[in-house]
Write a structure and sequence with these properties.
The chain is an alpha/beta fold and about 120 residues long. The protein has 2 helices and 7 strands, in the order βββαβαβββ.
Length: about 120
């Protein structure tokens, strides 16, 4: 069984809580905020040198260490992490045929060292 571990040593951000509405050709569009785009850019720097390409069913377990004790939405954090993993080329897609589950994912508090710990484990059929 193949297993991988990645650490993104910056404060986790979500896409959904910081979206912007812009008008493009007279129609409203929703885009990620500058905060999220900056987070994604920084997170990519920690993942781009990885040569792993996952095209088989896996469990993606994420542990989010937040810098504050404010409430946050685990589902939105997972979605943002999945998008970053796809964009970095680690996962070929974030659909159900690749990411079968997020079992074991949690949100923690660590004021001194906010980060995301990602554990990817192959799912045996």
């Amino acid at each position: 069984m193949r297993e991988f571990h990645f650490t993104i040593p910056i404060e986790p951000k979500t896409k959904k809580n910081s979206q912007q509405i812009i008008i493009c050709k007279g129609r409203p569009m929703i885009i990620p905020s500058k905060q999220y785009k900056e987070y994604e850019k920084q997170a990519m720097m920690y993942l781009l040198f990885n040569t792993t390409i996952i095209d088989y069913p896996v469990n993606v377990e994420c542990h989010y260490y937040m810098g504050t004790k404010r409430k946050c939405d685990l589902t939105n954090l997972l979605e943002a992490t999945d998008d970053v993993l796809v964009r970095a080329g680690i996962l070929i897609d974030d659909n159900y045929t690749i990411i079968e589950s997020h079992d074991g994912s949690r949100v923690h508090y660590d004021k001194e060292n906010p980060r995301t710990e990602i554990y990817i484990k192959e799912v045996q059929e």
